[in-house]
Amino acid sequence: MEFYKYTLNRIFEIPQIITIHYFEYGKDFTFEGESHDFWEFLCVDKGEVTVTADTKSYSLKKGNIIFHKPGEFHSVATNGKTAPNLVVISFVCHSPSMAFFENKIFQLGEQERSLLATIIAEAGNAFSTPLNNPYTRKIDSNPNRIPGAEQMIQLSLEHFLISLYRKDILPLAEPRLAKSVRLKQDEELLEHLKNYMELHINQQLTVEQICHDNLVGLSQLQNLFRSKCGCGIIEYFSQMKIRRAKELIREKNMNFTQIADYLGYTSIHYFSRQFKKIAGMTPSEYALSIKAFSER
Fold it and tell me: Which pTM was predicted?
């Protein structure tokens, strides 16, 4: 019996990336403008900016995104009052469906913000070029990149475009979004944040840094962890560190000072206090309990 190989239709196909940026502008920054033969979009993650596209000017606030088609002159300026954070991504896409994004401004939903955060995170893995230089003309591959990072960027960016496209052509779908779907989105964001903290287990993270790196709001972040985990995200991160410390103690490859340093604690004394606060015993007491248990 023969099997028919069905060719999947792709409404957006992105073969090349030009630049991926996350900028933290000063309140008086102005970019004089440019035009080029590829697509670009600008998303406001924080603050407010004025964007010019050909002869029209637009005021964009947090969560707004504007697309610039190939050949369109565009510039950006801050308002002199707030220092905005912007995501700017430029890419090659010859799909006819890209015409949908011409001359439009969108408001991002949680799914789009999560996908953007994935793109930014994967770009940090895939490329050695800093993401905060607005004048970058060429990105360089990171020789130590995590496998699949570049493909994750491509897939997430195509998913991002599809999500915006669907939301606009199916305007009634969002209000009727099933509770189960919203719960699934929360679970995916929670898992993404947990993976992010695992990757940064040896650092001292702040709530502000977590929000910045994952493009998520402070209230949403705290509400998510309090509802799903029963504690704030920094408390959860501290618990994660102590769980890892217990594993390292059981593995017996490091002493307590080395473990404290590995996990990003400022001193062995602070590490011991945190360990006792969360585990109910000191690192030494935990090590002795493990030894006693193994000798039974």
Answer: 0.67
